[in-house]
Amino acid sequence: MSVALRDFLRDMTLLVQPEFDPLHQQQAATGLLRDLVSQSGWLAPEFRAAGESFRQLLLYNDPLDRFSLVAFVWGRTSIESPVHDHGMWGVVGVLEGVEISTEMVPDPAGGPMRPGRKDRVPAGEVMLLGPTYDIHKTANETPGAPAIAIHLYGGNIGSAERRIYEATTSKATIMRSGYDNPVLPNPWAQPVAILP
Predict the structure, then answer these.
(1) CA distances in angstroms from 167 to 82, 135, 160, 162, 173, listed in the order given
(2) Which is nearest to 152 in space by CA: 80, 75, 89, 65?
(3) CA 185/CA 47 separation, integer angstroms
(4) Contact 29, 9 (CB under 8 A)
(5) How far apart are CA 124 and CA 106, in angstroms?
(6) Of 4, 68, 113, 148, which sits with the fewest C-beta atoms within 10 Å of its C-beta?
């Protein structure tokens, strides 16, 4: 494990104490993640390799599920992610390439979702996810080109029940995203991969 990643994990573990509310945790974590993605060379090769589609690779999951750190690696044929939510705070930092995040707003009457806020996040920058901006889809700005985003969440994102949405009908389906690691780095992270 690199020194940069070890230091990040130590600082995050100190940050997710019960005396700090989730908003404080997210705000402080934003600076930590920005520092991490501004550095190069810390992410091991097995977490950088692109496949055909995008992969969600667990880098670390806190043993008490207080936070998880994930490398989101865009694949050679990835266009965009499904529309989804998170149900917990998040900070997305881009390590390589440019990620586009488009907020998607469900239609209460069951019609098509409409796009809202759009963020372009280049390498070294971060964006926040939370209660007021939780449903979105993401895309690699340059499909087929290398792109890696580091996602930090205020819980175990792979095992959490959350929703995936049908963009044309706003229909939500419960899912657990799991992780795409062949071997999980933590013995307490369950290899759940349940997509509808």
Answers:
(1) 9, 11, 21, 16, 12
(2) 89
(3) 11
(4) no
(5) 31
(6) 4
Instruction: Give domain status of residue 94, yes or no.
Output: yes
The pTM assigned to this predicted structure is 0.91
183 in a structural domain: no
Q: What is the CATH number for 57?
A: 2.60.120.10
Between helices 3-15 and 22-37, what is the axis angle to 10°? 170
3-state secondary structure of 96: strand
Total tally of structural domains belonging to the chain: 1
- Are the C-beta atoms of residues 122 and 92 closer than 8 Å to each other? no
Answer yes or no: is 31 within a domain. yes
As given in the structure block, the two tokens for residue 77 are 């044929």
Domain that holds residue 48: 3-175
pLDDT in tens, 145-163: 989 999 999 999 999 999 9
- 184 part of a folded domain: no
Give, in order, the Cα–Cα distances in Å from 157 to each of 57, 61, 84, 190. Answer: 11, 9, 12, 11
Residues 74, 146 contacting (CB under 8 angstroms): yes
